[in-house]
Amino acid sequence: MRAKGQGLLYQLKSFNFVFCLNMMHPILQIVLKVSSFLQTPNLELLTAIESIKSLKVSLNSLRNSPIDYQLIFENTEKMCKEINIEIPTVKKKTIPRKLDDNKNQHLFETKYDELRVLVFYYTLDTLCQGLDTRFKQDTLDLIHAVGMLTNLSTEIETTSYDLLSKYFGILTEELRAEVKILSAIKTKTPKGTNSVSVFN
């Protein structure tokens, strides 16, 4: 048990671990904000879709921001100096340019570049790919169309009508006519995207 504890302590007191802490902090802040927002009671469908799109944009923006990465790395260096953790140099690995070529080239010249590509980019790319897999664009388009429909919006795009028509087997002209009729009714109509707004 003591040996395991010492091994864990050794891992915690490493430059890579401190870097990951600093890297994950802004990422998790963004994810947590959206996650909490999506769990809000009575959240409308269209608003939820926009928050997911904003999350993807924010993560991509973080990935492509040299300033944000530089700040993460500099904070890591500062923390490591304060707690006497050695800042390692990059372990230069060599790979052949071609199988039949004897000349070699280094992958990374600095720890800064190594962590940026192998850890920072990889983490954010994995998160964005996960969002793309879970929330495919055609699914988002369909949810957006349904959200506009349930709100009886008169600004539904033609592409949304076509998508709803194809998915539910309803004639586009009939769907347009029904939306116009319902939106013109003077009495209160059950707008919204959740059972609370419909039945209460």
Task: Report on the architecture of this protein.
The chain starts with a helix and ends with a helix. The longest helix is centred in the first third of the chain and has 24 residues, at 15-38. Strands 1-2 form a two-stranded antiparallel ribbon. Helix 2 runs parallel beside helix 5, helix 3 runs antiparallel to helix 5 and helix 6 crosses helix 7. The chain has nine helices and two strands; from the N terminus they run ααααββααααα. Strand 1 and strand 2 (104-106) form a beta hairpin. It is elongated and about 70 Å long. It is an all-alpha fold.
Question: What keyword list fits this structure?
Answer:
two-stranded antiparallel ribbon; 200 residues; elongated; mainly alpha; 9 helices; disordered C terminus
Which residues form runs of ≥5 with pLDDT under 50?
195-200
- Average pLDDT confidence is 79
Q: β content, as a range?
A: under 5%
Major sheet: arrangement of strands: 1-2
Number of strands: 2
Output the radius of gyration: 26 Å
Compressed to H and E, one letter per element, the order equals HHHHEEHHHHH
Question: Helical segment tally?
Answer: 9
Biggest β-sheet: count, sense, barrel? 2 strands, antiparallel
- Structural class, judged by helices and strands? mainly alpha
Blueprint (SSEs and pairs):
Elements lengths: L1 H11 L2 H24 L6 H19 L2 H17 L11 E3 L7 E3 L4 H24 L2 H14 L7 H11 L3 H13 L10 H5 L1
Antiparallel strand pairs: 1-2
InterPro entries: IFN-induced_PKR_regulator
